Amino acid sequence: MSNLLVQNIKHTNNTTAQTIDTSGRTTVSILKEDSTYRSDNGAVTQNLVEALTKSWINLNGVGTIGILESFNVGSITDQGTGQYLTTFSNNFQTADYCYSGGMPTGTTKGTIRAQDNADSTTSAFTADIFSDGSNQDQAHYCVVFHGSLA
Amino acid sequence: MATLKTNTLTGTSTAGSIAVTGEGNSTTTNLQQGLTKSWINHSEGTSISDSFNCTSLTDHSTGLHSHSFVNAHGNKNYAASGSIIGDGSTQTTAYTYSFIGGANNAADSVHSTSSIKYTLLHHGGSVYDHQMTQMMTVGDLA
Predict the structure, then answer these.
(1) Taking the model in full, what pTM does it have?
(2) Which range of residues forms the domain containing residue A79?
(3) Do A30 and B125 touch (CB under 8 A)?
(4) How far is Cα B60 from Cα A138, in angstroms, rounded to an integer?
(5) Are strands A141-146 and A123-130 parallel, antiparallel or unpaired?
(6) Local structure of B34: helix, strand or coil
C-alpha cells in the first residue's frame, strides 16, 4: 500500500477544504445537503439531511410561557390557552413540513394538533386538545418538526 | 461524488456540533441537534419490539409504562413525542382514538434524563394497554 503524506487538502484557489490531523483524522467543515448515509443494516443509503429533525421544542405553557429547551426556534407566542405559535430561526422551504408532539408529564389526557391551518414556512400554530375537547396549558408541551429547510 | 468512510463523526471546533447544509442550500442546520436520540416500539407488557437507545421497558400497570435510555439525555427538557396503534379493547384495530399522555397523577409522571414514564389513554380518558406504542425523543445527550 502506498502512503500519501499530507496535512491539508486544498482547492486550487488555496482554500483549505480538509485537514488531516496528527491522528490521521480528516476534518470536513460542513456536510452538504446531498450527503447520504448507509442504513443500519447496510442494504441501502438514505439522504442524511432529509432524515434530520429540523426543529423541536419543549415549552412551559403555564402562566407566562417559556422555552425550556429547543432547536431552531426563534420565539414562541402565547395564542391563548393551550395554543402556541412557534417561529423558526431558519425557515422551512414549504409549509408542508410534518410535526408531531406530546405532553409527557403531568396528568395530561390530551395530544397535539394543528390550529386553524395556519402553518407557514416561518412558523407553526399548534395547540393541545383534550378528551373533553378543551385546550389546557401544560408545563411540558413538546413538538418535533421534520421537513426541508429553505 | 466523494464518499467519506468513517465510524465516528466529530466536530472540529466543538466535538458535539457539526453543521449540515439545508435542503434549499441557503441555511445550515446542526447534525447533532437534528438526530433522534431515542425511539421505541413496544406492545403491552415488557417486550420491546424494536428500539434505539432504549432499555428496561417496565409495565407498571394497565396503560402505564416507562423505559430507560442507554445513553442518558443531558437534561430533562428534551422533547418527547409518541403515538399508539390498536384499541385496548380489541387489540386488533388498525387505528385508534388514543394518545400518549402524562400520568394520572404527578407521582407517576417521570421525565428524567435517564428514563421516561407515560400513560396510554383512550380518547375518553380511560387508561388501556395498546397493541403498539411508539415514542421518540430529541434533545441533548449527556
Answers:
(1) 0.81
(2) 53-146
(3) no
(4) 24
(5) unpaired
(6) helix
Please measure the distance between the N-terminal and C-terminal CA atoms of chain B and give it in whole angstroms.
Answer: 34
* C-alpha separations of A121 from A56, A67, A90, A148, B81 in Å: 15, 20, 9, 10, 22
Q: Could you report the per-residue pLDDT of B49-93, keeping only the tens digit for each? A: 899 999 999 999 888 899 999 999 999 999 988 877 765 544 444
Q: How far is B95 from chain A (nearest CA, A)?
A: 16
**Same-domain check for residues A72 and A122:** yes
- Verify whether the Cβ–Cβ distance B21 to A32 is below 8 Å: yes
* Interface ipTM: 0.75
Structural domains in chain A (count): 2
Contact predicate B42/B30, CB 8 Å: no
User: Which three cell numbers mark A104?
Assistant: 409527557
In a domain, A137, yes or no: yes
